[in-house]
Amino acid sequence: MGFGDLKSPSGLKVLNEFLADKSYIEGYVPSQADVVVFDALSSPPSAELFHALRWYNHIKSYQKEKASLPGVKKPLGKYGPADVADCTAESKDDDGDDDIDLFGSDDEEESAAAKKLKEERVAQYEAKKSKKPALIAKSSILLDVKPWDDETDMAKLEACVRTIQMDGLLWGSSKLVPVGYGIKKLQIQCVVEDDKVGVDQLEELITAFEDLVQSMDVAAFNKI
């Protein structure tokens, strides 16, 4: 049995005729028989040998599953037409020695291409990351500002609080909340940049209006 010399046009012609009514070298699924014959080829069959070329391209698509295909490898001379002897030079045997590993070369090329693609994507990510503005830590703070008594002008008190302006501070909505005995406290919202404005700093500035403000407390504090 055999295909003659599979590294010659005559051997490829025998293979083409053998595959004219077959999908695989043995059986009805890809197997180690196909791997043995595939590895014996030094190049793809020509377009004229369309049966062999069809088989070659199909088996090549299994390169990643090469080792897991069913069957046991036999010498190349155990496959092919019964009336043709194998004379392929340096044919692949059970030891797996072969000067040309068509599967392996594709794996190496694919691995190199995948590595290059990964490096390009990492470089693109790093470039994009470097252009992205740094995240600014901010907090939303709800302040309770208490007056001395019920005779304190709360509109004036709020106006004084809002005169406090600094980089990283933004005043928001406000309201008066009853605390008892006719006294109301000012509850006012603000957003601050953590690196620029602190609660202690706000307390110091607000309580500086000592004729109007008795004390300042933090009613709520949330990171944004």
Automatic annotation (TrEMBL):
UniProt keyword rRNA processing, yes or no: no
Highest taxon listed in the record's lineage: Eukaryota
CDD domains per record: EF1B, GST_C_eEF1b_like
Alphabetized UniProt keyword annotations: Elongation factor, Protein biosynthesis
Ranges where the GST C-terminal domain occurs: 1-84
Keyword presence, Protein biosynthesis: yes
SMART domains: EF-1_beta_acid, EF1_GNE
A Pfam family per the record: EF1_GNE
Function: Catalytic subunit of the guanine nucleotide exchange factor (GEF) (eEF1B subcomplex) of the eukaryotic elongation factor 1 complex (eEF1). Stimulates the exchange of GDP for GTP on elongation factor 1A (eEF1A), probably by displacing GDP from the nucleotide binding pocket in eEF1A.
Quaternary assembly: EF-1 is composed of 4 subunits: alpha, beta (alpha subunit of the eEF1B subcomplex), delta (beta subunit of the eEF1B subcomplex), and gamma (gamma subunit of the eEF1B subcomplex). Interacts with elongation factor EEF1A1.
Family: Belongs to the EF-1-beta/EF-1-delta family.
Protein name: Elongation factor 1-beta
Source organism (scientific name): Polyodon spathula
Lineage: Eukaryota, Metazoa, Chordata, Craniata, Vertebrata
